[in-house]
Each structure stands twice: as C-alpha cells, then as structure tokens.
Amino acid sequence: MPLHSKQRNKMGLWQVIALAVGTMVGASIFSIFGLGARLAGPNLPLVFVLSGSIALLVAYSYATLGSRIISDAGPIEFILKGLGDGILTGALSILFWLTYVVSIALFAKGFASYLLPLLDIPATSFVSSVTEASVVLVFLVLGFLGSSAVGKAELVIVVIKLSILGLFVVLGIWSIKPYLVTPVFTATALTGSVNAIAIFFLSYMGFGLVTNASEHMHNPQKNVPRAIYLSILIVSIVYILVSLVAVGNLTLPDLIKAEDNALAVAAEPFLGQTGFLLISLGALFSIASALNATLFGGANVAYALARDGELPRAFNRKLWFGSNEGLYFTAALGIAFALMFNLNGIASITSGVFMVIYLFVLFSHWKLKKQYGGNPLIIATGFVVVAIVFLLLLKYQWDTDRGSFYGTCIVLGGSLLLEIIYRGITRRDFIQRELTLLKKGEEDLKGELDKDFSMLLPHQQRRNP
Predict the structure, then answer these.
(1) What domain count does the chain have?
(2) How many CB atoms lie within 10 A of CB 210?
(3) Which among 87, 343, 372, 400 would be 20 to 30 A from 124, CA to CA?
(4) How far out from the chain centre does Cα 396 lie?
(5) CA–CA dist 251, 336 (Å, integer)
(6) Which of 458, 457, 442 is nearest to 6 (CA)?
(7) 217: helix, coil or strand?
(8) Cα(145)–Cα(58) distance, integer angstroms
(9) Quick check: is 462 in a domain?
(10) Residue 391 Cα to chain centre, angstroms
(11) Cβ atoms 295, 136 nearer than 8 A
C-alpha cells in the first residue's frame, strides 16, 4: 500500500473523539447506573461531577505526555520513559492490555442485559453467554476493515446514541421532582457517594484510548490533547444531565430494582413504554460503540507491545483477513472474562486495574516533567487523589464483594507473574521499542513527502504510476 494511502486511512480529530466518547458513554450510564443509584442515591449527579474532576487530573498527564510521545502503546510508553525497562514496566504492559480485555467483558455483559429484556427473552445463563460472545464477534469482524472503518462506524454510532440521550434529557428535564435530586450529606449517604466515586471513576476511563490511537490519527501532537479534553467535557455534560433526569423522575427503590437496565426504566414515567424502548435502543448503540472502541484499542495495544517485544510475537503475526493475532486474543479473553464474572464485579475490577495504570502514569510524568513539561502541583494532586480512590475501591470490594477483590488481586498479581516468566524465558528488553518509534517517525515523514510529490504529478500519472 502506498504511504500516502496509509495517511488517508488515518483518523481525524472527531473520529478519535468519537472513539473516546464511545468508550466512556457505555459502561456507567447504561450498564451500572442502577448500582450508582443504590450507592449514592440523590447524590449521583454530584458523583459524576467529582469523578470527572478526578479524571481531568489524570487526563492532564495523558494530554501532556501524549502530545510528545506518539505510540499506540500509550501510557505504557510514558511509563517506560519514566521508569525505564524492568519487571515492573513489563508487568504494567501486560496489565494495561488486560484492562481492555476486562472492559470488553463489561460491555458484552451490559449489551446482553439490555438486549434480552427488550426482546422479552428470559436471561438464562446459556442465552446470556451466547449473546455476550456474539456481540464481541460482530465487532471483531468490523476490526478486519481497519482503523478508518472503525473510526467512521464509531462516529455514526456515537451521534445516534448522543441524540437519544439528548432526547431523554430534553423530554425528561421538565418533570424532574426537585426533592429526588436534593443532595443528602448524612454519614451513610457520604459513604455511599465516596464508594460510587470509586466505581464511577470507570465512567471516564475512555479518554486514555486517545493515546492508543495516536499512531492512527492525523497531527497527533495537537489532536491528542484536544481529543482528550473535548471528550471529557462532552461526556461530563451528558452524565450530569442524564443522571439528573433519571434520579429526578424515578424513586430510588424503582431504580435499584431495575439495576441492570435502570436508565430504560427511568424513562417510563415521562415517556411510557416508548421511553423504555428508546433508551434500550440507545443503550445497545452506546454499549456497542464502547465495545467497538475498546476492542480496537486493545488490539492496537497488543500489536504495539508485541512489535516492541513486550508480548509474544504471535500477537503481532498476521492471521485471518490480514488482522493481527492480537485482535483475536483480545476478543477471546474478553469473552472468557464475560462468562466468568457478573456485571458489577467486572466493573469494580476494571476500575481497580485502570487506577494502577493511572498511578504509574502520574508517577512517570512527575519524573519526566522537566523533559516533557507539566505542572508539579497538578501531577502531585492527581497522584494523591487517585491513590486514595484506589484504596477506597479495594475497601469497598472487600466489604461487599470478595470475589471482585480477589479478581483484582489475581489480575494484578497475574500480570507480574506472567512478566517474570516471560522475561525469564525470552530475555527480552526494550531496545527494539526505540527503533520502532524511530522507524514510525521516518514512515510518517516519508508518507507526507510521498503525498506532496504525488500532488505535483499530472492526474494521469497519479492514477497509473
């Protein structure tokens, strides 16, 4: 393929924003909204405000480093620059890929929880499992078509689901009952709200996917920060408004009762059965786009890490339809996690492992602040706040769901163990990573020169070189 064709296949700013928004507006607002209502009650809109503020602290480091370090490995590249090569960096590389795997499982389960009630199909274990596996396989097929196709599909799906949520807000905001959304500051309410913040920090995690698409976008030096901040701004507005309408129209017992598809039930008081149908369709579009974006990001991470020697070469090897094996490994493990854990358990495990990555990105940024820039106060504040939220999440898991606590520990410990074994067998290091980044820069330059030269040729010569 000519290099200027590779340039045309890259994603623009709004396609990348769509990937990030697609990932974020999927898990929390649809799949675990009922859990948030049970924990935070009328404080749920405030929870989204605080979670978004914490996300901005982390996003600052992602945007600063991501504008200078262009790699589909994203935060792992930042950590490598900050901490150097070692067992810890290698373990975090594996862990980072696993965050995408677990996220895919979360979205697959969320999709099934809305689709089956909509079709009035009993959600038996077998039917749910088949549905979860099938939706992952559908977007696996889309992944065959490349980054441009993924980005265009994501943009269309995101526009549809934001339109549905916008309609939900516009029609429901007039019937909000103020007493249902008045914040409560009792000890129990505050404890529940803090736990909800720890869980719903997951709501904003999609912004990091921007850095994992940096090699596939136009002008990443400018577009990475723009995409990160704009996606968080868009998602924050959506979350706050939707939570106000949902909590303000339906009593907490009713929201909690419909835990897995609470948002669809919340539309019934002012839209009736039509509202249930509309939001269920919105949820399907929303979760599907999140799954699409996450599968794309996970495959990119697997490819980048395998290319640079951190994952086995099999992840980088071409298989069916010209796709890398990393795409298939990512999809297969995502299905496996979906079949092993329940929805809330997967949500808290996902939050936990992402927070570990965030902590090390913030620490790496602290060490790199002189080289790449960064406000020390913002970086330090972000590290302390995320560390506190992570500890609160572990306590919540221990108190309410030991399986999730053990699952988080297994994912963290398993990543370290896999790295120790893999490093011991292969004796690999990260020297090749620097070479591949250099090669990437050369390819981009050649691509631009090739495109410019092509424009100078007569039209017929461009068509028949």
Answers:
(1) 1
(2) 30
(3) 400
(4) 22
(5) 36
(6) 442
(7) strand
(8) 32
(9) no
(10) 21
(11) yes
**All residues at 6 or more sequence positions from 17 whose CB lies less than 8 Å from its CB, including other chains:** 227, 230, 231, 234
- φ and ψ at 53, to 5 degrees? -65, -40
In a domain, 456, yes or no: no
Quickly count: other Cβ atoms within 10 Å of residue 214's Cβ.
23
Better pLDDT: 449 or 231: 231
**Distance from C-alpha of 171 to C-alpha of 283, rounded to nearest angstrom:** 17
Q: Which tens digits make up the pLDDT trace of 233-259? A: 999 998 999 999 989 988 888 888 776
Q: Which residue range(s) make up the domain with 169?
A: 9-449
Residues 6+ apart with CB under 8 A from 92: 76, 79, 356, 357, 360, 415
CATH number at residue 388: 1.20.1740.10
Neighbour tally for 257: CB within 10 Å = 13
Which strand (E) or helix (H) includes residue 341?
none
Measured between alpha carbons, how far is residue 265 from residues 117, 118, 203, 287 in Å?
11, 11, 20, 17
Residue 464 included in any domain: no
Contact 226, 13 (CB under 8 A): yes
pTM here is: 0.79
Q: What is the model's pLDDT at position 356? A: 93
- CB of 333 closer than 8 Å to CB of 343: no
For residue 460, pLDDT beyond 60? no
Mean pLDDT confidence for 364-372: 94
- State the Cα–Cα distance between residues 272 and 133, nearest whole angstrom: 31
| 243 located within any domain | yes
CB 184, CB 42: distance < 8 Å:
yes
Half-sphere exposure of 43 (CA within 13 A, CB side): 22
CA trace torsion 329, 330, 336, 341 (10° rounding) = 160
User: And the tokens for 258?
Assistant: 């419909």
Q: Residue 45 and residue 319: Cα distance in Å, rounded?
A: 46
Q: Are 312 and 419 in contact (CB under 8 A)?
A: no
Residues 71 and 444 sit within 8 Å (Cβ to Cβ):
no
Residue type, 83: L
